[in-house]
Amino acid sequence: MLPAAENIQLHIFVDASPCAYAAVAYLRVYKGHKVVVRLVCAKSRCAPLKGMTIPRLELQAAVLGCRLKESLERCHDFRAHSTTFWSDSKTAILWIRFTNRNYKQFVAFRVTEILSFTTANQWRWIPTAFIVADEATRSRTSFECEPKLRWFMGPEFLYQDESHWPKQIAELSSDHCALLSERSPGFFDFAIMPELILVEELSDAENVILRRVQSESFAEEINAIEKNKCLSKSSAIYQLTPFLDVDSLLKVNGRIDAAYCLPVTARRPVILPHYHQVTRLIMKQYHCRVHHQNDSLTINEMRQRFWVTRARALLKSIKKECPKCIFNNAKPATPRMGQLSSDRLTPYVRPFSYSGVDYCGPFFVTIGRRKEKRWVALFTCLTMRAVHLEVADELSTDAFILCLRNFVNRRGVPIKIRSDNGTNFVGAQRELKQEESLFDFKGIEGEMSQRNIQWVNCPANPPEGGCWERLVQCVKRLLQRVLLQEAPRLETFRSVLIEAENIVNSRPLTELPITPHEDEPLTPNHFLLGCLNSTQMPSQAEEKTCLRKQWRIAKNLKDRLWKRWTVEYLPQLLRRSKWRAEVPPLKPGQLVIVCDSARPRSQWERGRITEVFVAKDGQVRTAAVSTSSGVIRRPTSKLAALEVVNPPEDSPGSGMSLHDSKQDGITAT
């Protein structure tokens, strides 16, 4: 039939979907009064895994159709008298037809390839119902192969005369789109690709949008200015002395017109209301442009073109919905300060019966001609707040056990020792291999169990170790001021530690006396040494001493110290110094950010709470969090809660229906 045909036409249909894009070719052969349409070839490709917009996928399908045409002409002997390409994408056809092609690279390269094989007049638009290639872009469980199907026979309109083919729409230009937006009740109901819009056309379309925003929000003010009347003093823009420019835009009539160092848009910015949706979108754009920086920078950038009423309030509401700002500003809500343990409140016990231990350092000491690192093991009595300092040669289990044995031999065997599980050695732990650890906690527990010492860990929770953390800070500050970045010899360093220990143990625990008749303040040295450890005045020896009463006198002196501790020191612990407010407790299923001071904020993990642990006072202080690395247990002081919220609906009278207004956001609680 092809050699005897009077007219041979090649029709190629292209289409795309989020799953795939395809092209199918048909031959329309005209012989006499008979028209025959048959399938020649078809090709399809899966859409990229990385997300791509539908217009770009339609452009990919157009490229596939051009390559299919070249393959047919190269592999067959016949030559079609005419070739027509059909697509239901107006955007792709406009990309091909547009004469001013100021496109991005993706669009520019593909349009160039299309126009190297075809002409713009060969491309025609067709409704989606007539596009045959749509069947190759949809997933199907089964496919019928009957010869009479549309896939093999082609669309019905090809059997008819060309006058009955789908009518072409008028060529849409950017000006036409702007006019449509001016007449449309919601000019954000459609999307236009930026590649289609010229700079001048974009400026004109922007003026159309701004005029409409101002007419909806400042109708009374515009009417008064047009009639040369004064604005009402109750108007929100009365202090801006507005005027209408040549484009009928309401602008600020300021006092810096002679500041030629600034552009005209900064000297006379366009006035916008804070409650309009367009203003909100503009503020979001500037907020993202300055990379979510401080409010002043964002507002200053925006005022180079626009003056928004109540701009700071608008920016504050936008930051509450911005996921990146929420993540950057998320802070844990520490629950109310809990009850003190019995270790802190038990009187009439031997010093260091209830102790806490921590490390500080490193400090440099001189050994021969070299400098080495040494650490300080700080033991503190939780009851009377005394300290005991030991020098540790290294961060190892053996060095810690040696310090522990020295402490026990000098201060006695404690009943209970608390520690923070070695979490303060994050920097040193990073230097070791992952399979190694700083301390063998099983070995330490075995050493303590031999001496009947109960060991309690406070994992990854600094507030629970505040007793020794505060004293570590005090000792480090004292050593830094004494050593002055020098590296003393080891014996000198030990002597400095003993001096620092005595100074810290001489600090007052109670109020300082105001009159000379009041007792001296109570210090930890009163319990350790029986006095303040200051210079003692010699007293005259008594000739007659009753030895049977001396133990009773010593006991009374000790009981007097504990009575002063109970009456003067314990009431000071009654008041909560911080964390007084009630905070909403964390709940299972809640989204949280796991705060880690050893890692940058961008690397903080996010997870979902699987279980919460309630303390004796009813407060949730620890929770189990399921993260990408597994289930971890963290205190609530290191968990910043997130809550999924819906952004506010469009303001009444804005005339918008934004595509992104239905997206959910997150906010910190």
> Which residues form runs of ≥5 with pLDDT under 50?
172-193, 423-436, 647-667
Number of helices: 20
Biggest sheet strand line-up? 18-17-16-15-19-20
Q: How much of the sequence is in beta strands?
A: 15-25%
Largest sheet: 6 strands, antiparallel
CATH class of the largest domain: Alpha Beta
The CATH architecture of the largest domain would be 2-Layer Sandwich
Task: Report the mean per-residue pLDDT as an integer.
Answer: 80
Topology (elements, then pairings):
Blueprint: E1 7-16, E2 20-31, E3 34-46, H1 54-75, E4 82-87, H2 90-97, H3 105-117, E5 123-125, H4 150-153, H5 174-183, H6 199-217, H7 219-226, E6 242-244, E7 250-252, H8 264-267, E8 270-272, H9 277-289, H10 295-302, E9 306-308, H11 311-321, H12 323-329, H13 342-345, E10 354-367, E11 370-381, E12 387-392, H14 397-411, E13 416-419, H15 426-431, H16 441-450, E14 454-457, H17 466-483, H18 490-505, H19 524-528, H20 547-569, E15 591-594, E16 605-614, E17 620-627, E18 630-635, E19 639-645, E20 665-668
Parallel strand pairs: 1-4, 4-5, 8-9, 10-13, 13-14
Antiparallel strand pairs: 1-2, 2-3, 6-7, 10-11, 11-12, 15-16, 15-19, 16-17, 17-18, 19-20
Helix pairs in contact: 1-3, 5-6, 9-10, 17-18
